[in-house]
Specification:
Elements: E1 6-7, E2 13-14, H1 16-22, H2 33-68, H3 77-100, H4 102-120, H5 126-136, H6 138-154, H7 159-189, H8 193-213, H9 230-249, H10 261-283, H11 299-327, H12 332-338, H13 340-356, H14 362-381, H15 389-417, H16 424-452, H17 458-483, H18 495-511
Antiparallel strand pairs: 1-2
Helix pairs in contact: 2-3, 2-6, 2-7, 2-8, 3-4, 3-5, 3-6, 3-9, 3-16, 4-5, 4-6, 4-8, 6-15, 6-16, 7-8, 7-12, 7-13, 7-15, 9-10, 9-16, 11-14, 11-15, 11-16, 11-17, 13-15, 14-15, 14-17, 15-16, 16-17
């Protein structure tokens, strides 16, 4: 921008040095540093509990299956229904955040999550467990997109925003590790219900701090106020539920994909998806997923690459846990210890990432993370029968956390910075939809591959999943390399300020 000043309304202007300063200082929304710390604790905690209840539940499944007499054909549903419901409702809740503000949707989402997490701990049979897990999923569907909306709208582009987003992404592996740890402790030392009770206690603290410290962002928008796209909601939710249901259930149905209801639900899901595309493009007044958001340079390629890479991460987490427990015969507590590098590495990467995102081009960081995604699954695909932990498992864990942390941080900053303030809820729902749907979609395909190769034994069938994930990681990195160019995440004007500047210049030219 040289030495020119940028006007920001009557009587005010931003010089380059002022823009840099604004990108580093505490936002005006926070009255004190303690309020900002409380806000950050709430947002980081929301990511923590979402991952806690996702990862630890897989470790609980054997104990739950025995205690609640879950039939083999239904064992996958208590785990998958949570991600399925969360992914299906992210877009509608993102719109609610744009309509009513991120604060109210975030706090209600945490409260809902707390209630159903507590009730889940008292499940008496597997049907109650499945219903409770499904209702649990509505909580993250509400607070994850609204959380990113709050982060993206309160913090200006610059080093401070980069650092907070880095910490936010780091708490995914931290929550993942905590879930595995407390699940192992609950199964081996107490009872499985305490996994949910401990999580509920953490949730209660986060909910109270959120209520007290998150600034209200409800604005009077008048005639331009966001409206719910009901037709879009009524097509995208059943589309995602039916497609993911078919992919998840297809490998466990009586006759696999030859079972009549599997191809029927799969086809119906794509018909609803086609209806959603039609509604969004030609019917909806305010679409849940506006087509013009993909006009941002590189956005289409970024969405495709993220869908594949998050899917790779989901396959890695699920099958690495099972490989370590069932093939390498590590107990729950030893398995949680082996996942420690994901926790520690996430925190280290967050600290470093927050300091260098404004110094290195995003494209370089994305290529680094893409390489890490490939190595994380490749190391498990070639792992020998009696592996050395430090030669295979440790570097795989480090690469997995590096891949997802760097990708999550760089792309979150890019997407939220590329959106108007009024569309931060949409940005949050898009980011998390790619995460949850990528995990659900590719886990369904990997599960099908593992089931079809079950006659080779657990070790070889799990390796099929890792080879599949490696291929997806290579494809995702190729799309990133050829289709996505992201510069340094340095201090800059917001999109709203840029548009206001363009309108002001246009007015001046018209007057002259």
């Amino acid at each position: 921008m040289g030495n020119t000043e940028v006007e920001d309304g009557p009587g005010t202007s931003y010089s380059p040095s002022e823009i840099e300063r604004l990108g580093r200082e505490r936002p005006e929304a926070f009255k004190s540093i303690w309020v900002e710390i409380g806000f950050c604790f709430s947002l980081l905690g929301s990511m923590f509990v979402a991952e806690y209840f996702t990862s630890g539940f897989n470790l609980l499944l054997p104990a739950l299956s025995e205690s609640l007499h879950i039939p083999p054909e239904a064992e996958t549903w208590p785990a998958s229904v949570f991600a399925l419901v969360t992914g299906a409702f992210l877009l509608p809740f993102g719109r609610l955040a744009d309509m009513f503000g991120g604060y109210i949707v975030f706090v209600i989402g945490l409260g809902w999550f707390l209630v159903w997490s507590l009730i889940t701990g008292f499940s008496q049979n597997y049907m109650m467990l499945i219903v409770c897990r499904a209702l649990q999923g509505l909580g993250p569907a509400a607070f994850l997109p609204s959380g990113i909306m709050l982060l993206g709208s309160i913090y200006r582009p610059g080093p401070r925003k980069n650092f907070i987003f880095s910490l936010y992404g780091a708490f995914a592996p931290v929550g993942f590790f905590a879930g595995i740890f407390f699940a192992g402790v609950s199964v081996q030392m107490i009872t499985w219900g305490w996994f949910f009770f401990i999580g509920s206690m953490i949730l209660a603290i986060i909910a109270v701090v959120s209520y007290l410290t998150i600034p209200s962002d409800r604005e009077k928008k008048g005639a331009t106020e966001a409206k719910m796209d009901w037709f879009g909601t009524m097509t995208i939710v059943p589309a995602l539920v039916l497609i993911v249901f078919a992919l998840t259930e297809g490998s466990h149905a009586a006759k696999g994909w030859a079972t009549p209801y599997i191809p029927i639900t799969f086809i119906l899901g794509f018909l609803f998806l086609g209806g959603f595309v039609y509604v969004e493009g030609w019917v909806a007044e305010q679409p849940l997923l506006p087509g013009d958001m993909f006009n941002v340079k590189g956005m289409k390629a970024l969405v495709v690459a993220l869908f594949f890479q998050y899917g790779v991460f989901g396959v890695y987490l699920f099958y690495a846990s099972f490989y370590i427990e069932k093939v390498l015969h590590a107990g729950p507590l030893l398995a949680s210890a082996w996942f420690t590098p994901m926790c520690v590495g996430g925190l280290i990467l967050a600290t470093i990432g927050g300091l260098i995102l404004h110094l290195l081009p995003g494209t370089v960081l994305l290529l680094l993370s893409g390489t890490c995604f490939i190595l994380s699954t490749l190391l498990f695909a070639i792992i020998p029968n009696s592996p050395n932990y430090w030669a295979y498992i440790f570097p795989a864990m480090v690469c997995a956390t590096a891949g997802v942390d760097i990708t999550f941080n760089v792309t979150n900053v890019f997407i939220t910075t590329s959106m108007l303030k009024a569309r931060q809820g949409l940005a949050g729902s898009l980011i998390n939809s790619l995460l949850f749907l990528g995990i659900s979609f590719f886990l369904g395909i990997a599960d099908l591959a593992v089931t079809m190769t079950a006659d080779r034994g657990e070790r070889q069938s799990y390796k099929v999943a890792f080879w599949f994930a490696t291929g997806c990681a290579v494809f995702g990195m190729a799309v990133m390399f050829f289709g996505v160019k992201i510069g340094k995440a340095s201090s800059d004007l917001t999109i709203d300020e840029r548009e206001e500047l363009e309108r002001e210049l246009t007015r001046r030219q018209s007057n002259q």
